[in-house]
Write a structure and sequence with these properties.
- With 251 residues, the protein is of the alpha/beta class.
- The protein has a domain at 3-97 and 167-246: P-loop containing nucleotide triphosphate hydrolases (Rossmann fold), CATH 3.40.50.300.
- Helix content is 37%, strand content 27%.
- The protein is built from ten helices and ten strands.
- The protein has helices spanning 43-50, 80-86, 101-111, 117-130, 134-137, 150-163, 180-193, 206-212, 230-235, 240-246; strands at residues 3-14, 17-28, 32-36, 60-68, 71-72, 87-90, 168-172, 198-202, 215-220, 223-229.
- The strands form two sheets. A six-stranded mixed beta sheet has the order 6-7-8-3-9-10, with helices on both faces.
- Helix 6 packs parallel to helix 7.
- The relative contact order is 0.18.
């Protein structure tokens, strides 16, 4: 089984506070890997390392390695802008551009130099279809994206990420503020998207992790407590702390 991302002995500190404490984990190609754990366990910090968004934080110290396709993205030679094209991110709160639905999707490809209208039209349609949004907006492509519902805006942000053709998609609590119907559509989209992309899903919703991920990692207080195939982690966890978290005894 191919490994897309390999994290080795990763330690991250903000000032004197250690957020990740020697985490080692492999993320497999064309799988959905779920990161779960209570707030403050280091899940979001880990994905901010993978997309190098952590570069914008102050007073951060990083030790260890993160490899994507065998290349260490922390060794100082990586072009961060190129990296972020390969690694798309969808955040908890959807932030559509204050433009039309169409322009939200076309914006990234235009930055990459695509100007041909026919090509842009194709990218917009394909991206919206992959995000399970096309049927809802195909007759409203030129309305403001801000007029869409919260669930539609989140799928629009997913489509906007897909339009730039990344290899990896990181999702940080993408359904935290969404209703069950919108959440189901996001999950349906992710199940299809893993055929083309490697996906990492951060979620405090253990039921969601159980439903749609192939591998699950449980983090607690900056440590990786348990990692393995999702079915194994949920039905026969190796660690008592994992079992207690899944059963809702803390979180």
């Amino acid at each position: 089984m191919d490994i897309k991302i390999r994290v080795e002995n990763l330690r991250v500190s903000y000032g004197s506070s250690e957020i990740l404490k020697g985490v080692t984990i492999d993320v497999h190609t064309h799988m959905i890997t779920g990161f779960m754990g209570p707030a403050g366990s280091g899940k979001s910090s880990l994905i901010s390392i993978i997309n190098r968004m952590i570069d914008f934080e102050d007073d951060v110290t990083i030790h260890g390695s993160v490899y994507i396709d065998g290349n260490n993205i922390l060794d100082g030679t990586v072009d961060e802008i190129h990296l972020r094209r390969r690694v798309g991110t969808v955040f908890a709160v959807p932030i559509p551009l204050p433009r039309s639905v169409y322009e939200n999707i076309a914006y990234g490809p235009r930055l990459q130099g695509i100007r041909n209208r026919t090509e842009l039209n194709t990218i917009v349609e394909e991206s919206l279809k992959k995000a399970f949004l096309w049927d809802e907006v195909k007759d409203r492509l030129h309305i403001s994206a801000l007029k869409l519902s919260g669930g539609q805006q989140q799928r629009l942000c997913l489509a906007r990420t897909l339009a730039t053709k990344p290899e990896i998609i990181l999702l940080d609590e993408p359904c935290s503020g969404l209703d069950p119907i919108s959440t189901a559509k996001i999950e349906e989209a992710l199940n299809e998207l893993k055929k083309e992309f490697t996906i990492v899903l951060v979620s405090n919703n253990t039921k969601q992790i159980a439903r749609i991920t192939d591998y699950a990692a449980f983090f607690y207080m900056g440590e990786l407590i348990e990692y393995g195939p999702t079915e194994k982690v949920f039905t026969n966890p190796s660690e008592k702390k994992t079992e207690d978290y899944i059963q809702g005894k803390f979180g």
